[in-house]
Amino acid sequence: MPFVLRKCTVDDVQLLQDISVETFNETFEAHNSAENMKDYLEKAYNLAKLEAELENDLSQFFFVYVNGEVAGYLKVNTGEAQTEKMEAESLEIERIYIRSRYQKMGLGKFLIDHAIGVAMEQNKKMIWLGVWEHNENALAFYKKLGFVQTGAHSFYMGDDEQTDYIMTKRLD
Questions:
Q1: What is the CATH number of the domain that holds 40?
Q2: What burial letters (b/e) apply to 21-55, b meaning 16+ CB within 10 Å?
Q3: Alpha helix (H) ranges present in the chain?
Q4: CB-facing half-sphere around the CA of 20: CA atoms within 13 A
Q5: Which residue numbers are catalytic?
Q6: Residue 19 burial (CB count, 10 A)
Q7: How many CA within 13 A on the CB side of residue 90?
Q8: Residue 142 class from Cβ within 10 Å (0-12 exposed, 13-18 middle, 19+ buried)?
């Protein structure tokens, strides 16, 4: 089944919000309070914030389609748009989400490969991401693709401080 990738524009902000909320809920709703989820979703995925992210030249969003339907998306950052201070030669995969009905089809690897391609086009030497310490499926997936844990940082889900592992992959 062929996957189709399309770079997002500001015109996609409503669709981006819809899929962001849907996939974040699918991934984390069972592990967090309704109040913390609501608080996080309102801050992270409000239309004004997403529009500003789409307009940032140091960030790029991509939708992946299966049979004409958006199945997931990828967000990458460079430079000052990265959520952690990293070396100039790095690219962050800030978000990679696949709708649950499209998981286990190879879309995650497809999006990671695209992020690696974007990084290589920009002469980056490393890609990195943060992943929740209790997201065992994601941790196993990233390790299988050659990412290694090199640190950790706090991530706030509402008022709940959680830990994300920083995972990196050298490209040289």
A1: 3.40.630.30
A2: eebbeebbeeebeeebbebbbeeebeeeebbebbe
A3: 13-28, 34-44, 47-55, 107-121, 136-144
A4: 24
A5: 142
A6: 20
A7: 19
A8: buried
Q: Which of 83, 14, 82, 25 is nearest to 50 (CA)?
A: 14
Domain total for the chain? 1
Which amino acid is residue 10, in one-letter code?
V
Is residue 35 over pLDDT 70?
Answer: yes
Domain interval for residue 64: 4-170
Q: Is the CB of residue 9 less than 8 Å from the CB of residue 63?
A: no
Residue 87, classed as helix, strand or coil, is coil
pLDDT at 1 over 80: no
Q: What is the pLDDT of residues 69-128, one digit of tens each?
A: 999 999 999 999 999 999 889 999 999 999 999 999 999 999 999 999 999 999 999 999
Q: Would the pTM count as exceeding 0.85? A: yes
